[in-house]
Amino acid sequence: MSLGLRENQLQFTLLVVVNMAVGGLVGLERTTVPLIGTDVFSLSSDLAVFSFIIAFGVTKALTNLAAGALTARFRRRQLLLTGWLIGVPVPFMLAWAPSWGWIVAANVLLGLNQGLAWSMTVNMKIDLVGPARRGLATGLNEAAGYTAVGATALLTGYLAIVYGLRPAPELIGVVFVAAGLALSLIVRDTAAHVALELAQHPKPLPDGEHPGLASTFARASWRERSLRGASQAGLVNNLNDGLTWGVFPLLFTDHGLGLAAVGLIKGLYPILWGIGQIPTGHLADRVGRKPLIVSGMLVQAGGLVLALVLLERPLLAGVTSAVALGLGTAMVYPALIASVSDHAHPAWRANALGTYRFWRDIGYAAGALLAGLLADAFGLEATVIAAAVLTAGSGLLAAWWITERPRS
Q1: Mean pLDDT of successive 10-residue segments in the chain (408 residues)?
Q2: What is the count of structural domains for the chain?
Q3: CA-based Rg of the chain, rounded to a whole angstrom?
Q4: What CATH number is given to the structural domain containing 164?
Q5: Which of 1, 51, 87, 210 would bridge with 215, disulfide CB 3.0–4.6 Å?
Q6: Cα 43 vs. chain centroid, distance in angstroms?
Q7: Longest dimension (CA), the chain
Q8: What sign has the CA pseudo-torsion 29, 30, 32, 33?
Q9: What is the pTM assigned to this prediction?
Q10: What is the domain extent for residue 238?
């Protein structure tokens, strides 16, 4: 047994396919669910419509945090399988929910599913490849997941045109659950690879340094400058994603676009986000993490501005914004995960990644909450402006706080 992408290519490939199923399940909601809230359940408040994203974001963030601690008691493969079992009811609840409360409840289960399943695919890939190829490993992982998110968003938009908002678009989730669960039964656990990296690590855990969740949470949230920089950038990155998840379908339908065009916009963003992470993950291993993180956040901010500048031509505005947001996020995502891994000892890396992913995914809830409050008070366009300002500010903070660490 050894560390490396080529040496573990079969297991790595299986995990890539598993994460495509993970991404596909959450992609069910990108196009249709905000419109289900307004058109099926007649919700008049934007905050009420975005409540499903808040439920998803809070649950996923807390599960990410718990997942790191749970790896000390359970094997990664056990947690991966648990995530898939929790996700089994989700497509059925979305398809036939008798009230909006059921949609919110489905998103609690979806958050648990995503927090466990996605966290474990990230950790297991990093375990397999070792420190030299973390950027590429995380890029491939996130590429698989978010390309599936985008493809599913496109497909659900098409199905909604042909068959209506429910139940056909949501029931394709059954395929993702079945595939993810079946493949997770085949994947091998990576505990032995973690033990091997610990044995090879040039720096033993210093005396008195505790690898537990509480200590690591403080270290990754505020005590260590680079980890703090990564955590805030991840939070704001997903804040603008959570905001556009809810706002863009409503904004562009208000300006005359139909479901097909909205599906294109909502699908193009994560597809570019996904595919783009393959070269950007590799680039992060060559030029460093910080240049991609800072420039990626600024590109995202520019994409949000373009959505408003070009709004008189809504399809052009949506597509141009989706391209910029997708490319900017592709630059940021693998570089942030790799940066956190660089600054974390293998003994507490799972907790560090869990903490980072907690802050990153609490951004979904923060973005949806901010979107609902601002949209109800000032309108959808003002909400997008606020997201652009926050994203640019986060990029500047990342430039100030994050440092590079040599990788062995």
Answers
A1: 82 94 94 93 93 94 87 90 97 97 97 94 86 77 88 92 94 96 93 80 59 86 95 96 91 93 90 88 89 98 97 96 96 91 82 90 93 94 97 97 76
A2: 1
A3: 20
A4: 1.20.1250.20
A5: 210
A6: 27
A7: 63
A8: positive
A9: 0.85
A10: 9-191+212-401
